[in-house]
Amino acid sequence: MNDEDATVDERQIHEVTKDIIDRLLGFDDETRRRVFRRALGFFELDISSLSGTSRHSQNEREQLPTQQGPTNGRAPHFAERLELSPKDFLFQKQPRTDIDRIACLAYYLTHYRDTRHFKTIDLSRLNTEAAQTKFSNTAFAVVNATNASLLAQAGKGSKQLSALGERYVDALPNRDAAKEVLRSLRIRRRARATRNNAESK
Fold first, then answer.
1. Is the separation of the CB atoms in 79 and 119 below 8 Å?
2. Smallest Cα–Cα separation from 28: which of 82, 66, 73, 78?
3. Domains, the chain, ranges and CATH?
4. Cα–Cα distance between 78 and 169 in angstroms, integer?
5. Which residues contact 62 (CB under 8 A, 6 or more apart)?
6. For residue range 2-24, what is the model confidence (pLDDT) as tens digits?
7. What is the pLDDT of residues 145-200, one digit of tens each?
8. Is the pLDDT of residue 66 over 80?
9. Which long-range contacts (CB under 8 A, 24 or more apart) does 146-152 make?
């Protein structure tokens, strides 16, 4: 196989993987596991052999979800997810603004790298790894994401993905659903402010 054939094959793998992920986004984790188990059975593949290819490169390695119980609505732990490169993850989420991208990078660190507390430099490095356009000012983008409540303080100069940020990135690339997440925050804030004003009178 020449280099051109290898490039075509990799592109096809990428497209098929993206199609599978897009099709499974609307299902819960247990349903996704059932789909994978049936597919593995059809092709007579051994899940242990697929998840143990540590000698392969990261782009070639495809780790299937672990066989655990439902996650009860929480975002799955990094070990429960299909392994995606940061480039593929950003391609899937399609962030449009710097704030979107910061939230997506923070999500990836949290759920794919098991790094729940991170600094601006960690986000910047992951952005480079994901082959994204360089931020004009990463620190400013992090501040804006924090002000938007997508990130939260974690102490010692570190940040962490907030519960709102998690829901926001989960909703992407559906822009309407992501906007609804932010709208629900504004409604809660207004209700809390109204309640506080009433109690102070």
1. no
2. 73
3. 1-73 (no CATH), 84-201 (1.10.10)
4. 15
5. 17, 50, 82, 83
6. 544 445 566 777 777 877 887 88
7. 999 999 999 999 999 999 999 999 999 999 999 999 988 877 766 655 556 665 66
8. no
9. 148/99, 148/182, 149/185, 150/99, 150/102, 150/103, 150/106, 151/102, 151/103, 151/106
Report which secondary-structure segment, H or E, holds 158: strand 158-161
- Give the closest residue to 82 by CA, choosing from 2, 18, 154, 138: 18
108: confidence class by pLDDT, cuts 50, 70, 90: very high
Give the distance, in angstroms, between the CA of residue 174 and the centroid of all CA atoms in the same chain: 14
Q: How far is CA 189 from CA 37, 53, 154, in A?
A: 44, 48, 22
Higher local confidence (pLDDT), 149 or 54:
149
Environment class of 47 (CB within 10 Å of its CB; exposed 0-12, middle 13-18, buried 19+):
middle
Alpha-carbon distance 162 to 166, whole Å?
Answer: 6
Instruction: Using alpha carbons, select from 97, 77, 76, 59 the residue that is nearest to residue 25.
Output: 76
Q: Which of 152, 151, 178, 154 is nearest to 167 (CA)?
A: 178
Predicted TM-score of the model (pTM): 0.59
- Distance from C-alpha of 145 to C-alpha of 95, rounded to nearest angstrom: 13
CA distance 90 to 131: 9
Q: Which residues contact 167 (CB under 8 A, 6 or more apart)?
A: 181
| Short-list 87, 94, 104, CA closest to 161 | 104
